[in-house]
Design goal:
By secondary structure, the chain is mainly alpha-helical. Helices cover 69% and strands 0% of the residues. It has a domain of 52 residues.
């Protein structure tokens, strides 16, 4: 009777990810998180300027829209 918990056969790479690939994936993930943090800080700064500088409202709204688009693109 076959075991319910079968492991992949030796030699198949279906479940194997190399250490280099894991490191690369982690670097990409942490870079994306850093980018999100930077963009969120910019967003907060623009929001605070919108409240304190009503004369520049249109330009700040455009900057906010651009930052939001970049955040959405990062996922």
């Amino acid at each position: 009777m076959a075991s319910v918990l079968q492991q992949p056969e030796a030699g198949t790479d279906e479940y194997h990810v190399s250490e280099d690939q894991r490191r690369l994936n982690e670097m990409v993930r942490t870079d994306r998180e850093r980018q999100k943090q930077v963009l969120n800080l910019k967003r907060q700064r623009v929001l605070s300027q919108t409240k304190s500088q009503p004369g520049r409202h249109a330009a700040l709204e455009a900057a906010l829209s651009q930052i939001d688009a970049q955040i959405a693109k990062l996922g």
